[in-house]
Hints:
Largest sheet: none
Amino acid sequence: MSNIYKTVMLKDLMALRTVVKSQHMKHYPESHINDYEADKIIESLSEPAREKLIKLAVDYGITRL
């Protein structure tokens, strides 16, 4: 796995975490919705998918949840 802490800016990582937690992890048990689990999902995404997800998060205001 790539190290997202070196490749993604902090503000973008926070946006990605918000999206992943609210959309990708909505059916997870509450005890498993945390930054560590979100980061594992984010690391599994390709770079173009991450960029697209960041753009959608900003465009649709998901980062302001």
